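Hi C.,

You asked whether I'd gotten around to modeling the 186-residue construct. I have! Everything is below, sequence then structure, no commentary in between.
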Amino acid sequence: MEKLKIMKKFTILFVILVIALSGCQGPESKTTEEKAEMSIEESITVLEEKLFNSSSLRLDRRKAIELIGLYEHFVRIYPQDEKAPEYLFKAADISMNMRRPHATIALFDRIINEYPDYNKSSSALFLKAFVYEDQLQDYENAKYNYELFLSKFPDSEFADDAEVSLKNLGKSPEELIKEFEDKASE
């Protein structure tokens, strides 16, 4: 009798476990590609939360590089997905803040060339010029890209910033302060 009770309990637990596990599998109608996409996107979400919700004021470079890699991996697999240019922009933003200018410029170039209709492609071009100016001190390329930006996007919210940057390109902080003081004394 005791063995029968144990067997019934075991059977009931087994049935509950099978039901619980089958409920966790999700719909079987998803294709392998959809499952892979979900997996990449879930990984991106988890890593974004770890990177951006950290109480530390320091950027975890390893996690940041891993996240950039996930963004690029998603774009390689799903170049036509509406999230692709946004993921490239996020990757470029992280890269720029990590002061990786060559990688950043390459990411902005991908946005500009592969997703010209993306709503932030003008920002990508402006920021590309800024990286040339600020991080590489390559004033020739900065000038070219600021001018290109102004010719393509004259009504952009960054147009005034591009004009100011062109006007002050290559000037040291001391030179800028002196110019400001000279104008103030006039």
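If it helps when you're writing up: The longest helix spans residues 2-24.

Thanks,
B.
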